[in-house]
Amino acid sequence: MSVERIFSEFSAQSWLNQNNISPLPDEVAVGWSGGADSTALLLALQARGQRVHAWHVDHGWRDTSADEALHLAEVAENWGIPFSSARLISTPETNREAAARYARYAQFERWSGQQGISTLCLAHHRDDQAETVCMRLLQGAGAGGCRGMQRQRKLGALRIVRPLLHVPGLELRLALRQAGVKWLEDPSNSDMSVWRNRIRHRLFPAVRQADVLPEELFLRWQQQAEQLTVRLDAAADLVMNSGNANESKSPAEMPQVSLPWQSWAVCGSAVRARVLQKMMAQLLGAGVTPGRRHILLAEKWTNQNGRGGLDLSRCRLQRKRAYLHLEPVRAGFAL
To answer: What is the pLDDT along the chain (335 residues), one digit of tens a residue?
Structure first.
């Protein structure tokens, strides 16, 4: 099928015309793996009239990945879409997915600064959102974590948008087939050592066999989690504002976030967890959040009346008389 016919097919899709999608600038980038979802998003944005740039990060996990990057460059050129590619040098064997994600987003930030593009679109869809909520529930996340992926967020100066969270993945693939567009299949999507894949290929099919639609089930919880988080945020803000929680310098010239101990101690555990998340983000930057283990440790420490200090990742809780302080870990301080 000709390029003109492909774009004509995708111009008929209404995915990007929903009221719940924030307006996009004329020029955007798409994180393009070459898979079905990101290919559908790339073509839909181009057909809509956006000036689209394709950003591809090669993690180097497969022998064929370099050839795949060259293939995608040829496809993008045929479609008239500017293409940027970078190959990651290495990723650790342990926690490889998280390390790759960090490196990928760091590369996106570099391209944003180099090319002057302020908005990056990612192709996560409705099924991905349901899987994310399920995975976070199984990990013991609270309401905040079970909101799933947000439609948009900021990464430094880069705005990240997920405009397809309302679209089923099957619909994206159907559009590609109707347009005669091929995509790359990532073999790692079948790796059962990856938690998300076990949810997708084992848990969700088992739930369907019980006549329950897993996407509907977990997206209902996601909506409830959104509502609960609004209430928790309001309660946490009251605690943060009770003593004008602020970032200041300690006597040793270390930055810290402080609030009255009594305000922290009397609020409920769910609110206290949200307060700790806000304190860490204020001290260490947006996106830095305590894990479940640290939240439980903070609860135990609080119930012991804040005796001594409590070491968390990159920071430390301290009670000093009538105030609670969150301070960064000093250089050379051994955890």
So the answer is: 788 889 888 887 889 886 667 889 999 999 999 999 999 999 999 999 999 999 999 988 788 889 999 999 999 999 999 999 999 876 666 667 778 888 899 999 999 999 999 999 999 999 999 999 999 999 888 888 899 999 999 988 999 999 999 999 999 999 999 999 999 998 888 889 888 999 999 999 999 999 999 999 999 999 999 999 999 999 999 999 986 555 554 445 557 899 999 999 999 999 999 999 999 988 887 767 888 889 999 999 999 999 889 998 789 999 998 999 999 986 543 33
- Domain's final residue, options 206, 233, 257: 206
This prediction's pTM: 0.83
For residues 212 and 123, the answer to whether their CB atoms sit within 8 Å is no
Q: Please state the domain count of the chain.
A: 2
The reply to whether 196 and 261 lie within a common domain is no
Angle at 60 between CA 125 and CA 118, to 5 degrees: 50
Closest CA to 197 of 124, 95, 128: 128
CA atoms within 13 A on the CB side of 19: 0
Domain that holds residue 161: 3-206
Query: Pick from 206, 222, 257: which residue ends a domain?
Result: 206
Within-domain flag for 213: no
